[in-house]
Amino acid sequence: MSICYLKTANNALHCDVIINGGGMVGLTLALLLAQADYSVIILETNIKTPIAPTSTEIPSDLRVVALTQATRQLFESLDIWQSIASKRLGTMENIKVWDQALSGSVFFSALEAKEPDLGVIVEQSVILHALQAALQHYPNVQTIYDTPLQAYQISADRLMATMQNNSILSAKLLVGCDGGQSWVRNFSAIAVKERSYDQLAIVATIQSERPHLNTAYQRFNATGVLALLPLSDPFTLSIVWSVETTLGQSLMMLSQEAFSQQLTQEVEAVLGTLTVMSKRIQFPLREQHATSYIGERVALVGDAAHVIHPLAGQGVNLGFLDAAVLADILVQATKKHRDIGYDYVLKRYQRSRRMHNQGMIYLMRAFKEGFTHTSPLLGLLRNKGLDWVDSHAWLKQFFIQKALGK
């Protein structure tokens, strides 16, 4: 297997795998493949300059992710977990979920579940820095910034991709890790089923009057879901407030003070007065699922294949698992001297991941619909259901195991 880049007869730059998208999932896949001795070219158009791998100061990031134990185990296997865990790591030892309208609630505890925690909260910039630093040690990985793909075509035994500067790349496989508006998916004519949640998510960093005690809070009502996620500082949290689009736009127009007051009221002052400490960002929420995860010498990973509601924090974790499964299948194929771009190899990846992700999409849809429906009867059942789950240890354990990615 080649670990350097070669100019082919038509002056194309050759590698084993092209990864379109250098976000968290794309870089994770690149590191998995690099450690398996594949040559990889990463194309990243959103980031023009990476964080310096030697930098000790990583810019703070409003965008945070809740990592499951399964993802942490993956990062441990890649030898980057210590780097991530040493920087601004928030820990969820408890999670409280409740419905504001009728006060049904459930409380999940790591101690009760005999787990070290129920998840950790990490800024995206911290994960990106750890991955970028790790990849510096692999000469078989090259990153090209700010030069998008323009087209590709399939030859006898490889894919030939042309970039917008007319450079040509040659590879056995092209992987789309390029998000919900995936260029790879669109150019490959892979259809996607999409539905709007008619909601937007508001993200910000806040300060609480009382310490969060490593507890995450999630409150539902008919207009949406508000999550408070504990960060490393005992009085600092990240919010993800998913609300109906019209209401969300109104909330974004409020002053910082007025927004803080509304926020405090929404969670019934569970941590005392809440104060917004950062700018607020928003993004529309939608559900997407590609009808196929593969094309001819093409595979889709992460948001390019599936986008779900953020209420359970599972989206990026599904993407990390996609990357791990795809890398493992490619390694197995190579050991058997099979072409990693062949259809029968890629179909193994699709069979392994598509049904699993479809199940999570259905579950998130059910949660979203169930908790935002205005029917009084459904509201009563919903609250009784929360109380019922809270009173049955085995059922709480089931949900905890799912949340941990087990």
TrEMBL record:
Q: What is one process in the GO biological process aspect for this record?
A: ubiquinone biosynthetic process
Record InterPro entries: FAD-bd (IPR002938), FAD/NAD-bd_sf (IPR036188), Ubi_Hdrlase_CS (IPR018168), UbiH/COQ6 (IPR010971), UbiH/COQ6_monooxygenase (IPR051205)
One Pfam family recorded for the sequence: FAD_binding_3
| Cellular compartments per GO CC | ubiquinone biosynthesis complex
Return the EC number: 1.14.13.-
Listed A to Z, the keywords are: FAD, Flavoprotein, Monooxygenase, Oxidoreductase
Domain FAD-binding: start-end pairs: 15-360
GO molecular function (one): oxidoreductase activity, acting on paired donors, with incorporation or reduction of molecular oxygen
Q: In which pathway does it act?
A: Cofactor biosynthesis; ubiquinone biosynthesis
Superkingdom in the source lineage: Bacteria
Give the protein's cofactors: FAD
What is stated as this protein's family in its record?
A: Belongs to the UbiH/COQ6 family.
* NCBIfam families linked: Ubi-OHases
Q: How does it assemble?
A: Component of the Ubi complex metabolon, which regroups five ubiquinone biosynthesis proteins (UbiE, UbiF, UbiG, UbiH and UbiI) and two accessory factors (UbiK and the lipid-binding protein UbiJ).
Protein's recorded name: 2-octaprenylphenol hydroxylase
- What species does this protein belong to? Candidatus Berkiella cookevillensis
